[in-house]
Amino acid sequence: MDMKTSTATLRIDGQRLWGALMELAAIGATPKGGVCRLALTELDKQGRDLVTRWAREAGMTVTIDRIGNGFMRRPGRNNALPPIVTGSHIDTQPTGGKFDGNYGVLAGLEVVRTLNDHGIETEAPIEVAFWTNEEGSRFVPVMMGSGAFAKAFTLEHAYAATDTAGLTVQGELERIGYLGTEEPGDHPIGAYFETHIEQGPVLEDNGKTIGVVTGVLGVRWYDCVVTGMEAHAGPTPMALRKDALQVAAKLMQEVVACAHRHPPHGRGTVGMVQVFPNSRNVIPGNVKFSIDLRNASEALCDTMDADIRGVAARLSAESGLPIDVKLVTSFPATQFHADCVEAVARATKALGYSHMEAVSGAGHDAVYMAKLAPAGMIFIPCKDGISHNEVEDAQPEHITAGCNVLLHAMLERAGVAS
Amino acid sequence: MDMKTSTATLRIDGQRLWGALMELAAIGATPKGGVCRLALTELDKQGRDLVTRWAREAGMTVTIDRIGNGFMRRPGRNNALPPIVTGSHIDTQPTGGKFDGNYGVLAGLEVVRTLNDHGIETEAPIEVAFWTNEEGSRFVPVMMGSGAFAKAFTLEHAYAATDTAGLTVQGELERIGYLGTEEPGDHPIGAYFETHIEQGPVLEDNGKTIGVVTGVLGVRWYDCVVTGMEAHAGPTPMALRKDALQVAAKLMQEVVACAHRHPPHGRGTVGMVQVFPNSRNVIPGNVKFSIDLRNASEALCDTMDADIRGVAARLSAESGLPIDVKLVTSFPATQFHADCVEAVARATKALGYSHMEAVSGAGHDAVYMAKLAPAGMIFIPCKDGISHNEVEDAQPEHITAGCNVLLHAMLERAGVAS
Known about the structure:
The structure is a homodimer. With about 425 residues, the first copy, chain A, is an alpha+beta fold. Chain A has 2 domains: about 5-215 and about 335-415, Aminopeptidase; about 220-330, Alpha-Beta Plaits (2-Layer Sandwich), CATH 3.30.70.360. Chain A has 13 helices and 16 strands. In chain A, β3 (about 85-90), α4 (about 100-115) and β4 (about 125-130) form a beta-alpha-beta unit. In chain A, about 55% of the residues are buried. Chains A and B meet through β8, α9, β9, β11 and β12 of A and β8, α9, β9, β11 and β12 of B.
């Protein structure tokens, strides 16, 4: 029997995967159908315990590193090869859903269970990782486990992070029994794949089952301040006003126009606004607001940066009101490795799923993995594009499809022992 | 000697008036040069005591009504005639200035002192009023004393108003000794004049000394809510957003455009904005903001109302986002009586002061008086158009000029006994 032919027809067990998702979602379940399982809490421990028990039952070994990342390993024929890794996170937002992160971890487990069912040996080992504190809801920074693994910051920095009660990451890792001994990053990765709900509306809007993720948008965060002159709304004629809000409103609209000037991936959002003195009959003297600009490459982010600064300078000159635009944070754009993107695309096509190329607008653990190894992501639709919300939902057939794509992309990279 | 000729050369004593203003301003003086003399406080009592002492020293009788309004009367030759009244208020904002209100009262006192100096008897009596709680800083509603006098609301309603400590207007009037017995409104008024700093920048901008006030703008206050859909700023492409802030920003600019479409007195202000959830990386799902529209007649206010509602309906149709525009308060426009406006204009021209017609954008006690009798106002410039602020300032020569105009306008209405 030709091994390649036999694995081509291989499919994961969608019902088993769905069942695992629902069982994990019961830990920290909220009345509205969501999940609250914050990083390094007792509930996170219960989630980790369940997932690692399942892994051991599937014959995998479990390694925990010093930041609490877990690596669940299925040996290959050649264990000198770096493992082909998949994974995500099992911590959630305070009012999170059942799928964000959890799907990526349990899809990896389902891949292993499927290989076990069919007695398939891979050339390279396969590993399923769960990364500590991806959400950043309890401890900052976000993507803490994968970030520490990629040495984006020091372990000491992560350890010292405290929650609102003053408890530290290090103390909580120890308390829940997930303070391992392996040095984060001292762990080879041959390639990395991550399945995830899209957290946006594009796949649903286009009626596609699979998003072949080519990269993650770069992000620039700015604080913007327009300074005018407070004055009484009654006695001050229009021509003699220095209305900070009116100038700010123009710039807010230009943030969106700037995104439209840099398609297809340009994004511009004003999410936060503070008006001073914020009184009904006083012309605003000062308006502070946030700008969030995103695009698919650093070059495009640079272009948008220059664009919005130019617009702000023009509006300032036209109005005579000072406008301060200050960059406060940035996350570089990530392009996933062509080999991984193509492995995902090939698997999707072979499986016959409707699909499209996608970019991720939000950060994921895969962004840090892409610094260390070829990486790629697989998106499936989520209902109305909503996540970080208890109403977060996904269709069982999409859950199954994404996992089948993961299976075949990993098999391509790991190689099937003949 | 022809009496008309003799009063034509009559001038008030600018130094005495300035001195009275500075002496009154010492009661509640703030370190930054302003005044804090909130209505019905111990300081307000001290201010009232000083002003009524000066009035009695000038031979006037003092009547206090049940809302604490004071009427300081100089008899005429024919005391069956209704008095020609001037006045304003002596309470201030918490960080108020020396001139707002206080000028109007002390200018009236200076008119009487000047008539006394020259032994001039008027036909009709002359009265100087101080109206309780014009500012509304401590007790709501604003313009309480003149409003109760004009029966815009009941005395019981005013009495029941409480400050943040729970103290009532009635209790505080009693405590400071200014709970009189005369029924508010049971007091004839032949004509009413009020001198006031402009509280806006128009006179200064035009280099004019006197504003001949023709009326007070009508005001419409609205609450406006745009409802969109909250979504993550990263994964949501521009075309699939329902960004409440972007639609709100357009409507905010239309508020100003609407004012410009209805010159010369149309005014449009957005002073207060609340964005939900007001998070940097979340597309706003809901934006609430205030709209303040003003114009010189009810017809023009109605036109602006229809204009902004039409624009909101169009923006809602274009964007697909519901926009709710709700009228929450309105103050009708006031046209001052031609006889009083012309008396002010004639006096100004006879005195040779530079002048222009003006409308008041803010409310004044004169608005309520205009419901009861012919009324008019005299504006003088204030520095940078700023009031309700400790830096509020006015030039002594303008203070003098406004009082000279008041003198001659009142003499015209009261008639000089020959």
